[in-house]
């Protein structure tokens, strides 16, 4: 069984902001391959699962779903809120480092409990209108509104951002390479060569952004991918091992057990 992929944005668009669709109750596990999704709910009860973590919806609440993350909804009441869909191309066309840093900080928190809503609701409402307009300075207007919105969310949400991570374009490029390849390569040298930098420099950038080394970051991503495949597909251990670039299934099983303390089969059946 392949993981279901949904696409909710036209190919010609780089960003989309719209009200959260009313009437949604339950969705099947799926992912979005071409974009990240930021969901703000001011109404609604139930649960939202991202990868293998389930969050109870205690609104107002914000969810950050990264590209290729699995997620699904299980709602018990009519939701109300907004959705931002953002492709990599939107950020590639941005010259505003602060906006990229703010998105990086937000992406560190899959779920945020929002404390102040009046201004945030107004900003979302403005964005739904402005992203549909065209003009010489329209991209700047949208970026300005996004910066204000994301700054407000980080200032008036829990957990509070105290030790702020510094996300930059190089780190985002590294994540894109790691997440976008046909196979995951468990090698800092490999990604450093693709980015025309040294392993030491890449390690410094990743550590500054996340607090962990590049090799640990890659290892954590490999385990996340393995868990997704075990939970949401019928792929065998051999197939998962191939996708994650292990030499065989026994090597994958040993690696997984060392990191998770259970075998892949035990994790899938738990």
From TrEMBL:
Transmembrane segments: none annotated. InterPro entries: AraC-bd, Homeodomain-like_sf, HTH-like, HTH_AraC, RmlC-like_jellyroll. The keyword Transcription applies. PROSITE patterns: HTH_ARAC_FAMILY_2 (PS01124). The keyword Cell inner membrane does not apply. Residues 187-270 form the HTH araC/xylS-type domain. It comes from the Bacteria. Pfam families: AraC_binding, HTH_18. SUPFAM superfamilies: Homeodomain-like, Regulatory protein AraC. Keywords: DNA-binding, Transcription, Transcription regulation. GO terms for molecular function: DNA-binding transcription factor activity; sequence-specific DNA binding. This is Helix-turn-helix transcriptional regulator. It comes from Flammeovirga yaeyamensis. The lineage of its organism: Bacteria, Pseudomonadati, Bacteroidota, Cytophagia, Cytophagales.
